[in-house]
TrEMBL record:
SUPFAM superfamilies: Ferredoxin reductase-like, C-terminal NADP-linked domain, Riboflavin synthase domain-like. Residues 118-226 form the FAD-binding FR-type domain. Its EC number is 1.6.2.2. InterPro entries: CBR-like, Cbr1-like_FAD-bd_dom, FAD-bd_FR_type, Flavoprot_Pyr_Nucl_cyt_Rdtase, FNR_nucleotide-bd, OxRdtase_FAD/NAD-bd, Riboflavin_synthase-like_b-brl. It catalyses: 2 Fe(III)-[cytochrome b5] + NADH = 2 Fe(II)-[cytochrome b5] + NAD(+) + H(+). The keyword Acyltransferase does not apply. Its cofactor is FAD. Keywords: FAD, Flavoprotein, Membrane, Mitochondrion, NAD, Oxidoreductase, Transmembrane, Transmembrane helix. This is NADH-cytochrome b5 reductase. It is found in: Mitochondrion. Belongs to the flavoprotein pyridine nucleotide cytochrome reductase family. It comes from the Eukaryota.
Length: 370
């Protein structure tokens, strides 16, 4: 009988091993049927039945007188056929259900988010890179089997400890940032941050090394973008105000069914301050529905873009005209916001439109301030 079990184990190693070795617990069931053990046990019963049945012994005795041992051959055939049938059933059952449970687990993971709008979550810094004289790209990692949970267009809130108050409680500095990585990216997200000498949060980011963590909460939804929501979207950005614009731009360009036209006016202090210019230029060269115009306060000798602040003339030439099918997005430092569209209201609602955009006839329904 030991010889039979060895042959069965070799013929059905997967079922045999699964029947007698421990398996990871599944979230779908708390009870595991030892199919491999059943297969081996069934084979053993067939083997025992062959050697113990008086009828088969009687057949053997007759066969000794009349001819070849047909009873033995028949019983062995039945035994092996039974064991093989059980193994095939076990293999199909376990193979099918294992894949089914795997797909169910994947489906559950795809609906889970790394971000939590009500809880601070630690994200580890994977890597960092300098992209300009005062801006850095920070890549944070998370479980690649789950989604980040970021919609277009939305931002994250970050916080860092900043000493203690009079009661000994930890004080924090809190700042919002918009990831520039694809919201569907698995396992990481990227933040583009300009480091200011007096910036408490940006200085904290500048001190981070790979392996350090940052607490994050979110997402905080800004503008709920949907494909083809407007025929033409105009954008005015200054400095790091490019980050929410890039999020919307990439969402439009990666969708072949989105026919939205995009026009971007991007203002900076100098050519060296233009963030992600190489990436933006590649996108503009690759997609005819994206037009970009750069302007800087301090142009270099070989500069071919605009000079100075964004003017009414630049806006007329570079933006879609006021229309129900037009939306103008604005993001930048307070001075630029006041000059272009007016800042948000004190309660952080959109407030009234003023500045250049009001002079050109744009209404509150046509303008969104990040």
């Amino acid at each position: 009988m030991a010889h039979f079990f060895k042959r069965l184990a070799k013929a059905a190693p997967i079922a045999f091993n699964r029947g007698f070795t421990s398996q990871p617990k599944s979230s779908f069931t708390s009870f595991r049927i030892p199919f491999g053990a059943i297969a081996a046990f069934s084979g053993g019963i067939s083997y025992y039945y062959h050697f113990s049945s008086p009828n088969l012994v009687h057949l053997d005795e007759i066969s000794e007188e009349t001819g070849p041992n047909t009873g033995l051959s028949l019983s062995l055939s039945l035994s092996l056929s039974l064991s093989l049938s059980i193994y095939i059933y076990i293999y199909i059952y376990t193979h099918t259900h294992t894949h089914k449970h795997t797909h169910q687990l994947e489906a559950i993971n795809h609906t889970r988010n790394s971000l939590n709008p009500d809880k601070w979550i630690e994200f580890k810094l994977q890597d960092r890179a300098k992209v300009s004289h005062n801006a850095h790209l920070f890549r944070f990692s998370f479980d690649p089997t789950v989604k980040l949970g970021l919609d277009v267009a939305s931002c994250l809130i970050t916080r860092a400890p900043l000493g203690q108050d009079a009661e000994g409680k930890t004080k924090y500095v809190i700042r919002p940032y918009t990831p520039i990585s694809d919201p569907d990216s698995r396992g990481y997200f990227d933040l583009l941050i300009k480091v200011y000498p007096e910036g408490k949060m940006s200085q904290h980011f500048a001190s981070l090394k790979p392996g350090d963590v940052v607490e994050v909460k979110g997402p905080i939804e800004k503008l709920r973008y949907t494909p083809n929501m407007k025929k033409h979207i105009g954008m005015i950005a200054g400095g790091t105000g490019i980050t929410p614009m890039l999020q919307v731009i990439e969402a439009i360009l990666k969708n072949p069914d989105d026919n939205t036209q995009v026009s971007l006016l991007y203002a900076n202090v100098s050519p060296d301050d233009i963030l992600l210019k190489q990436k933006l230029d590649v996108l503009a060269a690759s997609y005819p529905n994206l037009k970009i115009f750069y302007t800087v306060d301090n142009p270099s000798k070989n500069w071919k873009g605009g000079s100075g602040y964004i003017t009414k003339d630049m806006s007329v030439k570079g933006l879609p005209a006021p229309s129900d099918d037009t939306l103008i997005l604005v993001c930048g430092p307070p001075g630029m916001m006041n000059h272009i569209s007016g800042d948000k209201a004190k309660d952080r609602s959109q407030g009234e439109v003023s500045g250049i955009l009001k002079e050109l006839g744009y209404t509150e329904k046509m303008v969104y301030k990040f």
